[in-house]
Amino acid sequence: MIITFEEIDSTNSYIERNIQTLPDHTLVRALYQRFGHGRRDHIWDSPKGENLLFSILLKSPKRPFVYTMCAAYAIVLALRDYHIAASIKFPNDIYVDDQKICGILTTALYENGYQGTIVGIGLNVYDRLHVSMSDYVDEEIDLEKLMLSIDETFQKLCRQDFDQVVAHINQCSYLQGKILPYAPYGNVSFDCLNSDGTVSLNNGTKVIKIPLNEINLGNMTQKL
Fold first, then answer.
1. Are residues 46 and 85 in the same domain?
2. Which of 23, 50, 194, 215 stands 20 to 30 A from 175 (CA)?
3. Rounded to whole angstroms, how far apart are CA atoms 107 and 172?
4. Residue 155 lies in a domain
5. d(CA 31, CA 33)
């Protein structure tokens, strides 16, 4: 099922309000979100009709980070189809030329048991104020066709062995070759994303594993 709104508060919020009546794998798209938001309540403000804003409802119980990573890699592959080289900046952003082009917000809902997981995606396509697909593509981009392509790949990745998906994700990590200050271990380099939802970092003397959602890249320093 695909539901499209001219304007709404938030596609994630719409699904959350209606999760009991919406079927598995409902896609909700909006041309404009009045209260779009990202991780840690960051505001996602997108001009009307310029970007791809949609959410997917999934009722199969998987770990939220599995859905996030499958969505992230699906978006990287979709951008490759337009000859745009993108990387995944953990835990939930897609970058092109050191700038954020896409954000993902994944929410698992529980009330008297598991209800479902919502994967919200905001991808800059024609945004005139931020890096967008149109900066790299001369042809017209059909937003709904792009959404369906991302969703089809996302569904395929969710059915694959996740260890294989993680191996591909590690090849397009934004962290490759970068140094991070990470107290109390000093400067660390990225080793790999692990299929258990952790990231392995190396400070030169030992490998440190931390949960993916605890990564903060605000203080990223230099390339190795």
1. yes
2. 50
3. 24
4. yes
5. 7
pLDDT by residue (tens digit) across 154-173?
A: 999 999 999 999 999 999 99
Sign, CA torsion 133/136/142/146: negative
Does this model's pTM top 0.85? My answer is yes
Angle between helices 162-171 and 64-81 (to 10 degrees): 50
Q: Mind listing the pLDDT tens digit for each residue in 56-77?
A: 999 998 899 999 999 999 999 9
Indicate the DSSP class of residue 21. Answer: T
* Type and span of the H or E element at 5: strand 2-5
The token pair that represents 64 in the structure block: 């939220």
Q: What range does the domain containing 183 cover?
A: 179-214
Please state the domain count of the chain: 2
Assign residue 72 the CATH number of its domain. 3.30.930.10
